[in-house]
Design a protein that fits this description.
With about 575 residues, the protein is an alpha+beta fold. The protein has 17 helices and 13 strands. Strands 7-13-9-10 form a 4-stranded antiparallel beta sheet. It has a 3-stranded antiparallel beta sheet with strand order 8-12-11, with no helix packed on it. Strands 1-2 form a two-stranded antiparallel sheet. Strand 1 and strand 2 form a beta hairpin.
Length: about 575
Amino acid sequence: MSEDPADLAFDLVWANEGVHQVWGLGVPLWRLPFEAVTRMLGGRHFPDIAAYALALAAATWLLFLALMDVWHRESLPLAGHIRVAAPWRQRLRMSLWWMGVPLLVLFLPPFLELLHSWFGVCEQAVAYEYVFGLGLIAGLLRLAARPTGRRFGLLCLAAGFGGLIRPTLVLHGFGVLVSGAVLWWLGERKREGQGRRWLTLAGAATLFCVGNGVLYFTNLARFGSGFEFGHKLNVQTLYGSMYATRFDHPYAEEPLGSALRELGGWLFAAKTYDPFNEYRTDLFPGQSATVRWRQVYLRTFDPGYGLWVAAGWVAALGVLTRRVRRRPPSLPPETGSVWGRLVLGLGLYSLAASVLLGAFYLRNCVMSSRYVLDFMPCFAAGMAAAWTAWAAWWKPRRGGGVVLLLSLAGLVLWEGWQMHSEVNAYGPPTILRKEEFAAAMTRQRPTVELPQSGRYDSAEAAWGTRIPFNGTGWLDAEGTVAPCVVLFVKDPEFLELEVAPGPGARVEEGPVAWRAKVGLEFLKRERMERTQEGWRLVFAGPRRKQYQRGLQPVFLATVPKEQLAEPRSP
């Protein structure tokens, strides 16, 4: 984004001599051609909302193409080698199902509430994640309509690039890989030998690795590690959150039962919306007493969603069980009904991705309402699987058309009621006008000036460098510090800290909890010496060459992990 540290802002990263955003490069790459054309035509900036609207339109188009494919194959079934129109009652019931799927996934209430939130950069990343998830759902629909190796491979190739938008899309991609493999294996029409079938699966997995490989190497070039997305390097004023993401946290040792109860509370329980008190202990039922950064500011899901999604999982597992039992291994794969394949593909993806996301967030050091919304694509798929199973059940039965019509009307009413109950603690989006953007772009950045001595004698010395967030956590001129401190240094060879206990503090053993990192590397503490006022801590310099030259961020932990929520260090 910039090579000037003066351009650092909240949640941005300074790494490898440049300013970076967290996450991958998916959203910037999507915006890039629109920005380029706008500037070629003399403009300054292509609106972010317009770029997102185009992405949503593209995903919607893919979804409708997939639904049309399903419609074509179900409403015009093959009779020999000729497609003939299905009876009008069957087409009517198919139409009701067809209308229900986009109504369900495009107007999912948590998604609409997200769009109506303050829609900062973090919320935009989740919104793009859902758009990509819609594309994955469309791909599964097309694969269910016609399970060919080509469609399976293309779906895996696309799924592999999801992590460039948001890390959790890697887990969604694995869910698609599992679901797509089962769909293709059970539904593939050709009589292929086992060796060729396994070769096709290996090829699809390789295609899935292409996008993930791009993600790995871009992360490596930007942050110094292929598995780092910037969350251990970003600068902000949330001291407890920075401590937990860079060092350690007590919630990593949370018992399994307690962690599962809290995860269930996050997903489905009613909550107290208090985004400015992240360490409050009574935010929702099932919340653990263990210290953890928790930000509750958006209404997400309720128990009704859980029942609906679970119904989709049960239906998918039921279809899978019947398919496996009815096809002996010696027989060629049966194609089965497109309805069964739809339920199977959507439900298995939903189940696999939900389990992976649940495992990822089970003991994560920080948790937020927007992290719960990472479940939106797989929950929407599970609900669509349940809707499809419901439509398939009533399709051959008397009065099925009336039941499906009433169900569709009920879906509309339910979504309206859900939207009426929305909660957004931060308020609606703040739109940046063209004039405000132009003023921000032309603002003169101050010149960065580091002390020639390589020493910070006071908080004012760090603040005076004109590097945003330099000295974060160094709270006042008296030397009071927060649980985590950020300092910027140049060409670090060693790190020496002089610390003293605050007024009234009794720290007989000294600052044994103090730790230090440069970038992603922990520094080795060489000695701790007693001084007249307190202690002197000396840390060895970084061993990795990338941290030995240039401007580097130093992160200090000043308390034990159990005290990361405290306002200051003793």
